[in-house]
Specification:
By secondary structure, this protein is of the alpha/beta class. It is built from 18 helices and 13 strands. The structure holds NADPH dihydro-nicotinamide-adenine-dinucleotide phosphate.
Length: 450
């Protein structure tokens, strides 16, 4: 057993060094801080982690790839974007994690996502390592032909670095079925291989049923299991959701299926309050078919309102599901949620809650599920897609959905049990970090110094 003081000093030293080595990457620093803050007891119990420099190795990605993505827009103008793939940790399996296309994407954001992904993937128990990638390309307002040319150029470089046993990317913000289709087509053309190199594929050509639904469904299942520890369930809860993309839409769907009343969604133009209950069919039509904006929903839904410039967290609720992007829920939002009577918060997005907001929620005894546990259903189902591809054996919707439910139950219980074992029952942040970290650390130890 290491002395507690030595452990805290080591964690601080590794963190400070990572900060110096990765300047100007606040999201990555924040993700490191959040994990390191909970690791003291586990590092104290395992002196071998210290002896083998596990922490120092874990904060350093195995490989980082940055590349030029030139393409020609519909007006014939040459555009240049930047592409990224950070292969963070392959101790547990091939690198796995999504691609994000959004103007905010930079190396620090990709690193924070890859670091988080490593622990999330460990929690699924599916034998997948952690990685993440993307580009500062903005698909909004681009024609299908422009998106296709961009994806083809992006894959022309990326294909050298990925493969079904090496690195298996998926979707994330701005990358859905359309983009995965164009990326897959170009990979196949360049390599002459039809393999499960990407997940989130169309169901007619290697995709898995229930993958589209998996992240949002999983987050709501996790919230339901947390509520059960307090003798409650999703039934009858008043729910607010941020975002209106893949995760948010299927969080709405699952919450409604479990008998909750969902009253909000949002996009970057504002948030919508629909007291009668969000109309899922209309939301899907506007967002998935028309690629429209929140205002297009409100125009066709009497009684709903679009609020611009405010924050969705001011709407009173008992359950909040942030499903848009990082740092969207700050301490003022958290205080508003507590005032509004929130009982549970489950992160559908990655790191949507700032550290002080998390503290405020936990301090007010709100059940709080971190994204690396609550949104792990997406990547877990991606791993099921890989299994189906490897076996050339597509499963039914109910087969995949029931595996998803079992996996989410398992993640919930593992986080809860680990928190209890480490003396802080109900602290899902600690439970998720320690459980995920231990699996990765033990595999790294077994592999030697690499
Ligand atoms: P989508 O692109 O499908 O949707 C993103 C939604 O969030 C849109 O409504 C978008 O609005 C909104 N949004 C994105 N960035 C911002 C911003 N800076 N400010 C305000 N609104 C914003 O992405 P996903 O639903 O796939 O991903 C959402 C979150 O979930 C991300 O954090 C992602 O990393 C995480 N996640 C996704 C998984 C998946 O399977 N898809 C798996 C695990 C985590 P607008 O269209 O106006 O930009």
């Amino acid at each position: 057993m290491l002395q507690q003081l030595d452990v805290q000093q080591e964690l601080e030293d590794v963190y400070e060094k990572a900060l110096r080595r990765n300047p100007g990457e606040p999201e990555f620093h924040q993700a490191l801080r959040e994990v390191f803050d909970t690791l003291g007891p586990v590092v104290a119990r395992h002196p071998e982690y210290h002896e083998q420099a596990i922490l120092q190795r874990m904060v350093e990605p195995e490989r980082q790839i940055m590349f030029r993505v030139p393409w020609v827009d519909d007006a014939g103008v040459v555009q240049v974007n930047r592409g990224f793939r950070v292969q963070f940790n392959s101790a547990l399996g091939p690198f796995k994690g999504g691609l994000r296309f959004h103007p905010s994407v930079n190396l620090g954001i990709v690193k924070f996502l890859g670091f988080e992904q490593t622990f999330k993937n460990a929690l699924t128990g599916m034998g997948i390592g952690g990685g993440k990638g993307g580009s500062d390309f903005d698909p909004h307002g681009r024609s299908d032909a422009e998106v296709m040319r961009f994806c083809q150029s992006f894959m022309t470089e990326l294909h050298r670095h990925i493969g079904e046993y090496t690195d298996v990317p998926a979707g994330d913000i701005g990358v859905g079925g359309r983009e995965i289709g164009y990326l897959f087509g170009q990979y196949k053309r360049l390599t002459n291989r039809y393999e499960g190199v990407l997940t989130g594929k169309g169901v007619g050509w290697g995709g898995s049923l229930a993958r589209t639904e998996a992240t949002g469904f999983g987050a709501v299942i996790f919230a339901d299991r947390m509520l059960a520890t307090k003798g409650q369930s999703m039934e009858g809860q008043r729910v607010i959701i941020s975002g209106s993309g893949n995760v948010a839409i299927y969080a709405v769907a699952k919450a409604q299926e479990l008998g909750a009343h969902v009253v909000t969604f949002s996009d970057s133009s504002g948030y919508v309050v629909d007291e009668a209950g969000v109309d899922l069919g209309l939301l899907r039509e506007v967002k998935e078919v028309e690629r429209g904006r929140a205002a297009d929903y409100v125009a066709r839904r009497p009684g709903s309102r679009l609020i611009q410039g405010g924050r969705v967290w001011d709407v009173p609720c008992t359950v909040a599901l942030p499903c848009a992007t990082q740092n969207e829920l700050d301490v003022h939002g958290a205080e508003a949620l507590v005032r509004g009577g929130v009982v549970a918060v489950a992160e559908g997005a990655n790191m949507p809650t700032t550290p002080d907001a998390t503290e405020a929620l936990q301090g007010a005894d709100v059940l709080f599920a971190p994204g690396k546990a609550a949104n792990a259903g997406g990547v877990a189902t991606s791993a099921l897609e890989m299994q189906q591809n490897a076996g050339r054996d597509p499963w039914s919707f109910s087969q995949v959905a029931s595996r998803l439910e079992t996996i989410m139950d398992g993640i919930h219980d593992e986080c809860a049990n680990t928190a209890e074992e480490y003396g802080d029952p109900g602290n899902y942040v600690l439970g998720a970090n320690v459980a995920g970290f231990t699996k990765v650390a033990d595999a790294m130890l077994a592999h030697g110094v690499i």
